[in-house]
Every structure is written in C-alpha cells, then in structure tokens.
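Consider the tokenized backbone below.
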C-alpha cells in the first residue's frame, strides 16, 4: 500500500514539476510586466481612453476602446469604477461597453501567461477578445442608442493603491499583491493539470473537446463557467487539454466564457447592468464564444 502511494506521489510530482518548469517563466514575466504597467503606465492608458471623449469617432470608437481595454491592467473591480468616472464625464455607453468587455477577457499580464499556449492560441485569444469588445460596443450602440445601458450610481472613482512615493517600493508592493492574488491559483492549476495527466485518459479529452467539434465547443464553453477562477490558473489545464486533443475552437470558447463569467466579475456586472441587461450580457457571451469556437475549428481543423 505504501509503495503504491509512493509511486503515485512520484508520478504526480513528475507531472507537477514538468508543468511548473514549462510555465513558471511566463508567470514571472507576466507578473513583472503587469506590475510595471500597473504602476507606471496605467494612468497613461486610461488618460488615452479618456481623451477619446468629445471626439467624433462614432461607431469606429469601439475599435480603440476595445484595444485600450486589453491594454488596461485593471481587474473588473478596478475597471468598473474607472468606467463610472468616464460615464459621469459623458463617455458614450458603446465605447464603455467595448472597453469593459475586452478588459474582462484579457489584460497584458494574461497575454504573457497565454504565450505558453503557443503563438496560434495566443493570437486567437488576443484577436477574439478584441472582437468581443468591439462587437459588444456595436450592439450597445445599435440597440441602446440614446438609452442608458449601464447604471454606475453605486460606484465612485477608482481607488489607486500604488501610492508609495518611492517608485521601487510601489513596484515591489504591486508585485507582492500580484503574487498573493495569482500564486495560489497558478499552483492549483498546475496541480489539477498533473492530476489530469495521470488519471484522465487523453482519449476522453479528445472525445469531449476534439473530435465532435460542435459538441466540444459547447462543452468547453460550459465548463469555462465553473472552472475559471484565475487566468493564470487555467493555462496549465489548457496546455494539457490541447496536448490531449482539445481543439483550438474549444479552447477559444473556454477562454471567452471563463473570464466573462468568473463569479467575482458577475457580481460586479450584475450591479451595473441590472437583471435585464445582465441576461443580455450572458446570452451575448454564450453566443459569441460558440461562434468563435466553431469558426476557429472550421479554419483550423485538427
């Protein structure tokens, strides 16, 4: 019995250590770049978005708004107060929708993490997140023109936690918060990946997420809802699933529904959207993720 347990522990440690060596550099680099952007570039990015206000860009404004949402290093609980301050200044709801939607799906730190998935998956993630933000903005413009889509009454301006007068200490404190927030989920993701490698047959992953592409995309979009807790924590799982036969379309659907329906994000969004608009948001995320997943599998078959 002890020999069996020891053997299983050795196998699991081997898989864990292999994944850790593979992904750890991306995690460290992502944290470093994310903290640098948050401490030294966040204000410039948000001022650039604010400078759009008053410009006659029309529907084309969703393009820079979505791109700047991806560039913003803030989490959802930082993005919503920021959007609230822009809204009070007269920013159009369609531009805010594009900025917030893409910001939910992606940020510079997660882009670095996702590089571990390979250049194709990374490109798909960045491009689909940008398109999702732009599409959300265009839909809000089309169906809620001259109406209020958001209600920011319960949110004030964003709180800046990077206030230490010493720039180096500001950066180190930000990195410390980053490690505390993402480290446990990163290690948990690697541990779950090791368990999958050891105990879940690759044929099962292929059957669920690969060979039956339409069904696989639907399954991946569905499990993205309960499994997604932290972007960095899901990268080890996605790497292993892709190795085991998950299609890129299924991975794409997972990478959209996961962050878009993360429970902490939903709580904040429910407040600013209200019940009716919140239901529309969920429907949009589901349909967009399925459309992207099926399209990716059509152009990039296994």
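A designed sequence for it:
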């Amino acid at each position: 019995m002890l020999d069996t347990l020891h053997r299983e522990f050795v196998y699991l440690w081997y898989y864990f250590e292999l994944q850790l060596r593979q992904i750890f550099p991306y995690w460290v680099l992502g944290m470093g770049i994310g903290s640098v952007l948050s401490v030294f570039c966040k204000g410039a990015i948000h001022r650039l978005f604010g400078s759009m206000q008053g410009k006659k860009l029309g529907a084309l404004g969703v393009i820079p708004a979505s791109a700047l949402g991806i560039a913003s290093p803030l989490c959802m609980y930082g993005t919503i107060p920021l959007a609230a301050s822009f809204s009070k200044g007269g920013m159009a709801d369609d531009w805010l929708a594009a900025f917030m939607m893409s910001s939910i799906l992606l940020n510079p730190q997660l882009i670095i993490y996702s590089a571990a998935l390979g250049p194709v998956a990374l490109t798909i993630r960045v491009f689909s997140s940008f398109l999702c933000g732009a599409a959300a903005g265009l839909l809000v413009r089309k169906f809620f023109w001259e109406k209020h889509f958001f209600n920011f009454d319960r949110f004030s301006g964003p709180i800046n936690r990077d206030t230490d007068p010493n720039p180096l200490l500001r950066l180190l404190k930000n990195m410390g918060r980053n490690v505390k927030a993402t480290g446990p989920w990163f290690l948990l993701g690697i541990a779950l990946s090791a368990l999958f490698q050891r105990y879940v047959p690759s044929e099962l992953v292929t059957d669920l997420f690969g060979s039956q592409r339409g069904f696989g995309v639907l399954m991946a979009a569905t499990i993205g809802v309960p499994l997604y807790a932290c972007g960095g924590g899901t990268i080890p799982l996605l790497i292993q699933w892709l190795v085991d036969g998950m299609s890129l379309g299924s991975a794409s659907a997972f990478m959209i529904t996961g962050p878009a329906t993360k429970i902490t994000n939903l709580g904040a969004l429910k407040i600013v959207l209200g019940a009716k608009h919140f239901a529309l948001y969920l429907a949009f995320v589901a349909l967009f993720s399925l459309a992207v997943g099926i399209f990716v599998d059509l152009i990039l078959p296994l």
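The chain has a mean pLDDT of 84.
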